[in-house]
Amino acid sequence: MPAPVRSLVLWFPDWPVTALSLSSPTPLDPAEPVAVVRANTVVDCSTAARAEGVRRGQRRRDAQGACPRLRIVPDDPGRDERAFLAPVRHIEEISPGVQVLRPGLCALRARGPARYYGGEDTAARVILDALAGIGLSGVRAGVADGPFTAEQACRVHADSDIRIVPAGESATFLAPLPIIALEDAALADMLSRLGVHTLGEFAALELTRVRDRLSERGVRLHALASGADSRPVTPRVPPPELAREIAFEPPVELADQVAFAIRQTCDDVISGLAAVSLVCTEARIELHDDRGGMADRLWLHPTCFDAAALVDRVRWQLQSVWEDTAPVLSGGITAVRIIPETVDASAHHQPGLFGQGTDARLHHALSRVQGMLGHRAVLVPAIGGGRRLGDRQTLVPWGDRTVLAREPHRPWPGHLPAPLPSTVFDHPVSVSVLDVDGTAVTVDERDAISAEPVLLLTASAERRISSWAGPWPLHERSWDAAQATHAHRFQVVADDETAWLLLLDESGWHAEGRYD
To answer: What SS3 class is residue 300?
Structure first.
């Protein structure tokens, strides 16, 4: 078995809580007890929560019983990973070759930093001081033979933020630690029932018996308990820097000048993505002015961005910001930064064997028109929530993410169920509905119809009603006299086989749509 590699491990205690604080608009109050919960079990908690009796592994109700004012936060591994990238990059500026074991725990080969800074203790101290300089205090460092022993050195000695296990003494250091340090609950339970409670007792077992009973995984854990951790430290490969930025000196005050100057930067963004076989489907554009203002926006593309599309987005963003009644930017533009927010493999966006088809031509045509006429010149409809058909239609600029003020999945009592009319009039069309005596049909306060509808009069024709259904009351904002609505819906079928959706309100009869 290869000899253990001298490793330096950094442990960030309570990292899920720290990541939550870093991701929040305002830092967490240290005095506020916080618990991160997954599957109704506490996976981590703050120092203030531990002082109230909250512990990892507690059930949620037990933790809330110990601390009634406990703030419960759902576990978010993605948040933890994203927040951990910043300290990892900071460590790499001091000593490259960082391996992320998991969010809140990373390892380095100790030999390089120790030779550069003049010793393992000095190298660890330099890294901890650098992390404290960016607000990450309380980080612990451990140096030992192998990442496992170095990790245990971080965790078991709370009286010092640096613990160094001399070379060749890993087995002695690990011997008194409990068997649960191997992080295998099933193995710990079985060995405890056999009278094996520490790593030293587990390491003393004969290797052949461990292999026969626990297979190769047991052999691996036996080696860890013996201090023979042969895992190498595999440095991560930092992702390529895909964002690009251009600075202007002196500041530029015309959108067309900025758009002309940004072309080469946009080409660099696209060529940088192409070099790693990626394309951009979401781009974030940041605009900075000479008065310290910053305006950013996330832009989407129906397929993927090219350089010309990025130039258009920069110009549109500048125009919308400067035309705003309360502009975020009040001075000349000093810098523009383009960040590929979401990328995809370029193989997913290659033309097919027989061309890209009608969809690609449609994307190209609409994007070209939008580039010539402006961002809001090409709009596509989206169906939102609401009770009236006119309220449900929302127009969204081509390529933008659909953000609906009224979510369609929410309950809308009184809304029209499917199937919906295929033709919806922009403005309700005034019509008349008459009974057999030629009198207008009405509905009273008890939602009772005055007579059976027989005749439908529109501006173009007179139709006899062969069948009808309704009325269905539609009451909105009864608490607001200025916006209150009291109406009734009807569905009618005329003798010419046309079907209509009608609405009767205070102003009379109207046609909302037609079933074609």
So the answer is: strand
